[in-house]
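Entry 14. Two folds queued back to back today. First construct below, sequence then structure tokens.
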Amino acid sequence: QVQLVESGGGLVQAGGSLRLSCAASVRTFSNYNMGWFRQAPGKEREFVAAISWSGGSTYYADSVKGRFTISRDNAQNTAYLWMNSLKPEDTAVYYCAADSGVWLGRYYGMDYWGKGTLVTVSS
């Protein structure tokens, strides 16, 4: 079983930055590919970024490419999402997720989910 807890959300002005963290309670964190998804009010959940178990591969949604960076620290059982040049349309609940399968790059779902952290970007 994998438990994921996100932190780092909050209110930021457009153009600002935030770093989200995802702490995983799991025996072997490096067995899992990690991802970030988001859900804006009234919209479906969407993929944001993913990173392979080793950290050697990453994949981004076009909407965040060049602005967001996903990373992980396997020694600390933590994944991160660095968000720069934030826009009001980035406002959403951001969810951390973990997947034990083969690295896919672009994910539509994962095995385990956190409860989310709210990011609000004001204009």
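Second construct, same run, same settings:
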Amino acid sequence: QVQLVESGGGLVQAGGSLRLSCAASARTFSDAAVGWFRQAPGKEREFVAGVSWSGRATLYADSVKGRFTISRDNAKNTVYLQMNSLKPEDTAVYYCAARNGIVVKPPVSYSYWGQGTQVTVSS
């Protein structure tokens, strides 16, 4: 069982930056692919970025390419999402999730989820 806890959300002006963290409880986290997802009110949960267990492979949604960077530190059981050049449309609850295997986009493919952290970008 892997427990995930997100942190780092908050209120920021458009053009600003935030760094989200996803801390895991289990050492087996280092064997898992991790994804960041977001869900805005009235919208479906969508894939934002993902990283392989080694950190060598990453995957991004087109809407965040060039602005967001995902990374991980397996020694700290933590995955990060650096978000730069934030836009009002990035406003959502952000979730991290873990799965065994490769990084994929569909949320249904992930077994373990955090409780989410709110990101609000003002215009």
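Quick look at the second one. The two ends are 40 Å apart (CA to CA). The chain has a mean pLDDT of 95.
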